[in-house]
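Hallway conversation turned thread

IA: we were arguing at lunch whether anyone had actually written out TonB-dependent receptor end to end. Turns out nobody had. So, for the record, here is the sequence (642 residues) and right after it the structure tokens. Reply here if something looks off.
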Amino acid sequence: MKKNTFYLAVCVVLMAQNLALAQEQQEKEVEQLDEIFLSDTKFELKKENSGKIIYKISQKDIQQNSGKTIIDLLDNIPGIEINGNNNVAGSNIGIYIRGGRNRQVAIAIDGVLLNNPTGIAASFNLNLIDVNQIESIEILKGSSSTLYGSGAATGVINIKLKKAVKSPFNIDYLASIGTNNSQRTSSNSLENLEQNLSMNGSLDKFNYLLSFSLKKEDGISAANDKNSPIPFETDAFLSENALMKLGYKVSDDLSIGFFGNFNSYDYDYDGGAYFDSSINNGTESNIQFGLTSDYKYKKGNLKLTVSSSDLDREFDSYNGFSGTIDHYEYKGTSLFAEAINKFELSESSSFILGVNFQEFDNQTNTPFGDIDKDVANYSTFDPFVSYLYTNANGFNLNVGARLNNHSEYGSHLVYHINPSYNLISNAKTNLKVLGSYSTAFIAPSTYQLFSFYGNLDLEPEENATAEIGLEFSNNKWLDTNVVFFNRDEENAIILPDFITYQNADYTINAKGIETSVNLEPTTFLNLNLSHTFTEKSADVDYIPKHKFVVGVGVVPFKKAFININYKNVGERTYFDQWGSFGTPGEDVILDAYSLVDVGMNYTFNHLTLFALASNLFNVDYEDVLGYSTKGRNFKLGLRLNF
């Protein structure tokens, strides 16, 4: 798996620190009340005019958490629980927002919705995204199907990729090495290796960005070997990520762009919970390319996006009954096209009109049945509209509707109403009360419709969410908010007894409170505290009732930063339907656990050095029942920028 080449490249770069040039790195400080969001309108909107509480992971946050993945960063956001993040690299990731699962969370990159047409839940795999290619991430929680369509029932993860700098040429290089141990191992071998090279710049009206990343991990068994007298074989992971963005500014009002990316990873995996395998392995890759245009006119802004994506998954699995190796192949294609226009009626009101088209197909070949893409395909055509009103006296209103036209199950209307009011709003302080009521839907996947277990009579899952909240900001030292939400889910798609997919005839209710406090009393100290309470009436696998996160950022001296992160995850429930861990049909309770991570970085001239210690106290817990969890590990790295 290119092991020798990878080791050599990392070692060469780690010795390159003596070549750094002398130039002071400058940072721009943006006051909180000037912060701009895109997620709840798809156009720039000031924070005080938004009726949602949107969390943003900025480039500064990414830089100060060097060595962490996109999934690590998301797992510390209030209201989000990432299941499987602390297992071996390449493991299946569960994203739980407000009691929902992966299928109820929409993921978008630069406005393009991402899907996996071959998956049961059609959810995109975040393992395919490299954090070093990301400029920022916005997390919008609550039903958002009006703007984002199917899947945006509990939240939207909106990823913005890096843009070219204004100078003709800029290069950024990151390399890191580290250990990769479970709680049961303590090897000093450097089995966690990573490097990223990016080049970008602007030449007159043309701009470009090229980025390539490699990541390798080994040293841990995917399955937990605590019940075995013999240690399990380790399972390796290797990923490659390439990105290209090209832009051309036709005029002051019109710009066009092209983007293309390739993401791939190879992985080993085991035979199941507490069960080793030296044979099982797989690969997954995704190729995407597209065109964008952005036209600004006197009273509006028109954006056009077209994207095509091909996803391939293959894996080999040992069959203990026949003694043979079974091969599985999944191929899916997606087409995304969207036109969206914002027209300003006045300084205080505007309309957002759009139309979205998506098409999917799924070709599956397995020993247990095939899915033909000529049959397993569908398309959607959705017109949508939103009206945005912002008043100088502090009242804001965002209302909208979307008509989803699905080739298999017909038409479905969703809507939202989102008022907010700034009780106090001035240059330094903002106090806002907000509320919303919104509906959402999750379309059945190609697998749920067309597989051996498929059912063409399935209805989409329907969600209705009400929320009310309060947000207070003082741009010098404090930013805090609290939100209460209540969500009802109808027509949940289930597979009872592995016969055929059906719509549940009961309502699932999820409700909770999300609280966040950010304090910056001095320029050298930052404190983040959050608590998430979630209560769900059914389908509660791996969703904790309570989750606490505390982050402390310290600037001990100029150009240095220390980050200490504490996370407490409460008891979680796993419903053991088939009795794999005890009695069939009973719940298995996973204990609560607490983790402490410590990160440090220091910048001088063009060079940043960083270090990370994760699970500092080597806490022994199971993130996913029956699978290994990472223990205490250390990582060292550097970043060169010039």
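OS: looked through it. The mean pLDDT is 90.
IA: good, adding that to the notes. The chain has one domain: 3-169+245-597.
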